[in-house]
Write the C-alpha cells for this entry.
Amino acid sequence: MRPFLFAVLGSTIAASAVAAQATPPKDPEVGIAQLALTNAPAKGNAKLTVTSPAFKNMADIPFENTQYQGNKFPGLEWTAGPAGTKTYVVIMQDTDILRNGAPILHWSMVDIPASTTKLAAGMTDAPAGTMYGPNIRGTMQPYMGPRTPAGPKHRYHLQVFALDTSVGNESMQSYDAMLAAMKGHVLASGEIIGLGSAPAK
C-alpha cells in the first residue's frame, strides 16, 4: 500500500512542478473583449464572489480537472445574488486563444435555480432543473476542462451570472443566442480565473 501511495504522491508533486514551470500567460489577453462578463455586464456593476475547492484565483488548475487527466469538474461556489435573482448561468472561456474570432467556449450551464449557489466537485450530471448549454462541441454539452497547448499558460474564466429571468431552451442553440438572452437581465456577476498548461513531454 505504501509504495502505491508514494507513487501517487510522487506523480501529483511532479504534475504540480510541471505546471509551475510553465511560463505565465501572454499579455494582452487576446479574447478579453469577447468575454461574457465584458459583453453582458451586471446592472450597477454588482459583484458575486466565486470560488473553487480545486484552485485559488489565478492559480494552476489541477491536471485531474483537465482533459489531459480525468476531466473531473473542479467544483464551483458563489455568493447569493441580490433580491430578484431567479436563475444563475455559468460560462467557462479560454481568453488566451481565439477560434473563429472568439475565445474558446469550454462549458456553460443555465437555469440554475436561485436557491443553488454550489456545484459539487466531480459533478457528472446537470442538477435538477438546470441545463447544460453550448460549448465548442455543440449544444447541451457537459464540462469540458482545459486542454492547453504547449507554451505559455492560458487563463480560464469561470464566470457566474445572477439573472432576473430564465434563459430557456431556445437560447441554448448557440453561445450568441445564450448571451443575447442574458443581456439586460444580469443583476450581479463574478468569476474565478484558473491557469492551465500542457503536461511536459
Notes: The two ends are 29 Å apart (CA to CA). The chain has three helices and nine strands. Helices lie at 2-21, 36-39, 175-182.
